[in-house]
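Researcher: Next entry: tRNA (guanine-N(1)-)-methyltransferase (Parascardovia denticolens DSM 10105 = JCM 12538).
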Amino acid sequence: MKANTMLIDIVSVFPEYFDSLSLSLLGKAQDKGIIQVRTHNLRDWAHDVHHSVDDTPVGGGAGMVMKPEVWAECLDDLLDSPAEESQESRQGQEGQKNQQSPAPILILPNPSAPLFSQKDATELSRAEHLLFGCGRYEGYDARLPLYYRKRGLNVREYSIGDYVLNGGEVAVSVMIEAITRLIPGFMGNSDSIVEESYTGSDGLLEHDQYTKPSQWRGMDVPPILLSGDHAKVDRFRRDQALEKTSRIRPDIIQALDCQRLDKADRKTLISLGWEVSGDHPRRLS
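Model: Predicted structure:
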């Protein structure tokens, strides 16, 4: 593995779900050595005949909860730090390991966790090693992330939205795509990342996009985009981004820094019903 390759480990009871990561840009990034993806079947660390990874909830209730001991054996192996070792021995090995490479960031999808954002994706795109764990059923035992945090591991729990999925595989796929596309060399045209929704410094939604033909089924591309005047095109797109964000995600407008808005931004926001004064814009009733 190249020195600058991001290593991504994924633990799941359905590791074949991630065969899709070999397609398109993610597949090309692996071929180039930008990322390396390794999948692991959690059931390989279960010792009973049925390779079970779950049990009934303590205190009763519906569904099944993933057992911490199976997860811990798996994670300990991947972290190369067995739980049964003495604290002194473990600290010594961790010290040696940290000289070679930093410990991975452990990421666990959880519908009850903070929302995964573009800011998180940007931060994680700079990591050298990410370790994702895909929960199933009613999720993993709550002691699991607590245990690894106490051991000094950087543990992140994220939700990708206000809904519940059958398992963490979808959420992990979403996060991996959001993270890896920000790694230098991943995208063929790095400028496209700068212009996309949520990637700018102020996080506005992206303006509408059009292509040829300029007339299609009675609908025209906005004439300003055909003018050749790049300054006017940029202003049109910025105004459209402000309008769309105001309409769909007013919370983003409310978080803008008024000091970073230019005169034209202020004029547009005022026309959209915002008071642009103080630290942040305020919606007028």
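Model: Note for the record: The two ends are 57 Å apart (CA to CA).
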